[in-house]
Design a protein that fits this description.
Blueprint: H1 4-22, E1 30-31, E2 34-38, E3 41-49, E4 54-62, E5 76-78, E6 92-96, E7 102-106, E8 120-124, E9 132-135, E10 149-152, E11 157-161, E12 164-165, E13 175-176, E14 180-184, E15 189-192
Antiparallel strand pairs: 1-3, 2-3, 3-4, 4-5, 6-7, 7-8, 8-9, 10-11, 11-14, 12-13, 14-15
Length: 211
């Protein structure tokens, strides 16, 4: 005969396990985050949440799996990595690598850390555990800015255009750009495209690469 106390403890423990395993990750609402499509997964990173706080939340949605958003929360998977990419908003991301399975992260606004944090981070989504790597590039480094666009060509050159920034943290002057900067991800070097004064300086735009 089962002891009633043991039965109660067993049921309670079972309920805890079920609740943990069934708990759905629901990200907070946000703006100015990035999204990157790799395979069937859309990876989301950072942004400014409803409390106007900067985040470095990192999660994905696997669109190969069926779901009904009218009945349940979207099946996001949280893969946030502590102490990795700084909290930020307005950054730019794009895919790169031989199999286009890595994420290239550039700049964004990171608040009071503007002058102490590197501009570039990368992450290989095929590695386990997932790890953001800091890319320290000093030669011909470009200005930190936000709300720019980024795309990668078939030779793994990352093209960054436009955006805005205030130079060093605390500067009152806000600058918008119409320059194109090119980063060779195989050699880790910058090159600078010519300034096209026929294009208006801008931020908050998009860029699309068609092979």
């Amino acid at each position: 005969m089962i002891n009633p106390k043991n039965l109660i403890l067993y049921i309670t423990f079972f309920q805890i396990i079920v609740n943990i395993n069934c708990q759905q990750y629901v990200p907070k609402g946000r703006v100015f985050h990035t999204s990157t499509l790799i395979g069937t997964r859309i990876y989301y990173l950072g942004g400014q949440n409803n409390e106007s706080l900067l985040t470095n939340d990192f999660f994905y949605l696997d669109i190969s799996k069926s779901f009904n958003k009218t009945k349940d929360s979207l099946p996001f998977v949280n893969v946030t990595l502590g102490g990795s990419v700084p909290r930020h908003y307005g950054a730019a991301t794009t895919v790169f690598g031989k199999s286009k399975n890595s994420i290239f992260f550039f700049s964004g606004d990171i608040g009071a850390l503007q002058n102490t944090i590197q501009l570039i981070y990368t992450l290989d989504t095929t590695q386990s555990p997932l790890t953001w790597k800091n890319m320290a590039v000093s030669e011909n480094e470009v200005e930190r800015r936000r709300f720019l666009s980024a795309v990668t060509d078939n030779n793994n050159n990352v093209y960054l255009f436009g955006g805005g920034g205030g130079g060093k943290f605390g500067d009152t002057q806000y600058i918008r750009y119409n320059t194109t900067n090119i980063f060779d991800s195989t050699k880790n070097i910058w090159t600078h495209g010519t300034i096209d004064n026929t294009l208006l300086k801008r931020e908050g735009h998009t860029a699309t690469f068609l092979p």
